[in-house]
Design brief:
By secondary structure, the chain is mainly α. It is about 85% helix and about 0% strand.
């Protein structure tokens, strides 16, 4: 018996959860509490035809994307610093622990006293992404094969060769999955920051507005949009990074 294609499994799972959603909405019986799927998808289709919708998506994407790139770059830099310097590691490790342990809402509220609302989502995303990338990158550097390093020492191979053929593959093996995970977290943290900071033209702001006016179908439509974008970005990033990893390994 042949296994079902992957796309068929995905469609089957989606149909199952849509049915559960419909049953729950029918049991509740109040659209303002839980709107049925058909109503939510109808609202979403209506939003797709509005230019303001795409402007809002684009603005949120720029805020969150810039924060993700900055947090990733900073995490990589700090990982190399900690690997090279024990003093840097002693100073940076407690800070990363604080970043990981502090609730997102606390950071958002604190930043509202010091930063413009438009900048808060990007800063929050950087704070959330940086520790993940830092931890994965540092672990990858520390996991470099000691036998290969010993061989490189015996044959007096250059530092550039070791970085490219020993440290590089080990670093990427840990970093790439962490970056995909961080992307999903970045999108969720960024939207949460937008809900509280309410910058203009933001998905989080639209979610908050829908909640205030009890527009549950619109709120669920925006939520569904966030989920789909997050899943799509994670998939795209996963494919791109894996290609980069294979290319680096081939070299």
């Amino acid at each position: 018996m042949t296994a079902a294609p992957q796309w068929l499994k995905i469609l089957g799972a989606a149909a199952f959860w849509l049915l559960v959603w419909q049953l729950l909405a029918s049991l509740v019986g109040q659209s303002v509490v839980l709107s049925p799927p058909a109503e939510v998808f109808g609202v979403l289709l209506g939003l797709l035809g509005q230019g303001r919708f795409w402007l809002t998506i684009g603005a949120s994407f720029l805020r969150i994307g810039s924060g993700f790139l900055f947090g990733t770059g900073l995490g990589v830099l700090l990982a190399f610093l900690c690997f090279k310097s024990r003093m840097a590691a002693a100073l940076i490790r407690p800070l990363m622990s604080v970043f990981k342990a502090t609730p997102v809402a606390s950071f958002i509220i604190l930043l509202m006293f010091f930063a413009r609302n438009q900048l808060i989502p990007g800063i929050i995303v950087s704070i959330m992404v940086c520790p993940i990338v830092w931890a994965a990158g540092l672990k990858g550097l520390e996991a470099a094969d000691p036998q290969l390093l010993e061989m490189a020492k015996v044959f007096e191979l250059s530092g550039r060769w070791k970085r490219r053929h020993i440290y590089g593959p080990s670093f990427l093996a840990y970093l790439l999955p962490a970056a995909v995970t961080a992307m999903g977290l970045a999108w969720k943290a960024g939207i949460a920051a937008e809900v509280l900071a309410a910058p203009p033209d933001s998905v989080g702001g639209m979610l908050y507005k829908a909640k205030i006016y009890l527009e549950t179908p619109e709120m669920l439509a925006w939520t569904l949009c966030v989920i789909l974008i997050s899943m799509t970005l994670e998939k795209i990033l996963s494919v791109l990074l894996m290609r980069i990893g294979r290319k680096g390994g081939a070299e």
